[in-house]
Structure formats: C-alpha cells, structure tokens
Amino acid sequence: MYVGRFVVIGPEVSAYRVSSRSFPNRKVVERDDRLTVVPTADAEETDNPYVSYNCVRFTDGEAVLGNGSHVDPIAEKLELGYPARDALAESLLALDYEKDDYDTPRIAGVMDEEGAVVGIVRRDALLVERVSEPTLVATYERDSPEPIEFDAAEAEAAAREVYESEFEHAVCAAGVARADGGFERAIENGEE
Fold it and tell me: Could you tell me what percentage of the chain is helix, strand and coil, using 3-state DSSP and rounding each to the nearest 5?
C-alpha cells in the first residue's frame, strides 16, 4: 500500500519517512539542530518547492517532525513558548495542505515535556491531538491519526523500522528518541 510520507509520533520515540513515486532521489542529512530532506547528487533538477525541507527540528525541550516547510514555524512557535498543540494547529492551518496535483496534506508531530502531539491538515480537515502511544498519520490512505505497533526504543531502530515498514516506495527516514534530557537522532538513507 502506498501511503506517501508519514510520521509515527510517540511520547518516547518518533520517526518520519519519505515515501515517493515522483521524487525518489532524496536523502536525509544532518545540519546543526535539524535533519533536512535534500535531493541526492544524481537527482534531476526541479523547481518543486516540496522536494527539499527540514523534516526534524529540535528546540530546548521539544522535537518537531513533519513533511514540509511547516516544521520550521512549528519549532519557532515552540521557542516562543506556545504549547505544542497550539504551535501545530496554528502552523498547519496557516500553511494549509500543499497546493500540488494531489492536494497533499501536511503532517507533523511534536515530542514535548508532556508526551506527544500529532497533527494533519487536509483539504477537508485540521486534526490535532495529544497521543499517549505511537501514532501514525500519513499523507494518503492513512490520513487520520491512528495507533500503530512500533517497537523501536531508540532513534536508530526507529528510523530503520519506518524505513523497512510494509508501506511502498521508501526513500529515506529519520528517527528521534528521548535521551539524557534531550533527544538522539538517526538517519536511514537505504543503500547510498
């Protein structure tokens, strides 16, 4: 089944995966306080604004994961003191779903001091909810938050688990886990 890009958000461990039929030549790279999806060296040039973006950002006490440019304003609102739910809802609503051929939803999640919050903005809805167990939301097919069995206990295992999941067209993935008062991160780019 093709579900597009997806996040699994949990109170202790979370992950994000790029799945793509149209732009498979991408990878996740680490840059300062963020993980960024970028084209690989052999990717065709494109002016598509949805191909490259920060998929994970860290603040003092939170980790933000998502499928596009909305990750940055969510992190910025958290740094200003917004509660996670409000930062997600305001940013998703302001940027809305992607205006591409598929009306692709924007998905995101926040790991904060209270646990985790997940959100999605689709053409027909904005859903934001606090979750107490690993919860998946995807751009297609699984576009409402739903609990998922997720066994990873650390970042590397989380990235690998979402990358190797049953959903089609894996491109790259990132994992995040709580560790020593902060967060550890990991990248899975498949065979580079």
Answer: 15, 40, 45
Q: Kindly state the tokens that stand for 98.
A: 């992607």
Exposed, middle or buried: residue 60 (CB in 10 Å: 0-12, 13-18, 19+)?
A: exposed
Q: What is the pLDDT of residues 89-99, one digit of tens each?
A: 999 999 999 98
For residue range 94-141, list pLDDT tens digits in order: 999 998 899 999 999 999 999 999 999 999 999 999 999 999 999 999
- Asked whether the whole model's pTM tops 0.90, one would answer yes
CA-wise closest residue to 37 among 9, 17, 63: 17
**For residue 176, is pLDDT > 90?**
yes
Report the candidate in 51, 47, 49 with the shortest Cα–Cα distance to residue 38.
51
Alpha helices in the chain (DSSP H): 71-79, 84-95, 155-163
> Which run of H or E residues covers position 98?
none
The CATH code of the domain at 6-188 is: 3.60.20.20
**Do the Cβ atoms of 68 and 92 come closer than 8 Å?**
no
Question: In the 3-class helix/strand/coil scheme, how is 128-170 assigned residue by residue?
Answer: EEEECCCEEEECCCCCCCEECCCCCCCHHHHHHHHHCCCCCCE
Query: CA–CA distance from 176 to each of 40, 72, 75, 92 (Å)?
Result: 22, 17, 15, 21
Spans of all domains in the chain: 6-188
Contact between residue 59 and residue 75 where contact means Cβ atoms under 8 Å apart = yes
